[in-house]
Amino acid sequence: MEFKHFSHGHGLVLHQTGQGSEIHCSGCKSPGSGNVYACWKCNYFLHEHCFRATRSLSHPSHPLHPLTLVPYPTYPSTQFFCNSCNLVGIGFCYCCSECDFDVHVHCAHMQATPHLSHSTSLPLPNFTNNFTPQNPVYPPTQNTPFPNYHVPS
């Protein structure tokens, strides 16, 4: 069965990665394993978490406006600065176009889920996580659980 996702033109199929194998999520740009949605024609993969992320949410760190999930940063630099973890991102992000407020898709869901505009709790991707947005390591070390995000220079 194929599933549609706003971020990709082709249908995606649910796939269970084999034990020990890993994909690179085309959404959040982080490695992952387990259930993924895949387009084998394009080698496009999404963590189940990224696939199921709601298109809009209310977030406790930005209560003024709802945040909208976009498939890539809308800035000319093609990067965004996450207002939650203070790292630069290049993939899926929730943004407020009125305030230039941006958060990584996983940072948005690391907060308590009752504040979100949907009622189901989303499982997080398989990040090794000794990091929380409330207690960020800043400046981030090389051991960041989000290897494809970096501190702006």
Automatic annotation (TrEMBL):
Highest taxon of the lineage: Eukaryota
Pfam families given in the database record: C1_2 (PF03107)
Keywords of this entry: Repeat
Domain DC1: 6-50, 60-108
InterPro entries named in the record: C1-like_sf (IPR046349), DC1 (IPR004146)
Keyword Cytoplasm applies: no
PANTHER family noted in UniProt: DC1 DOMAIN-CONTAINING PROTEIN (PTHR46288:SF68), PHORBOL-ESTER/DAG-TYPE DOMAIN-CONTAINING PROTEIN (PTHR46288)
Protein known as: DC1 domain-containing protein
Organism of this sequence: Perilla frutescens var. hirtella
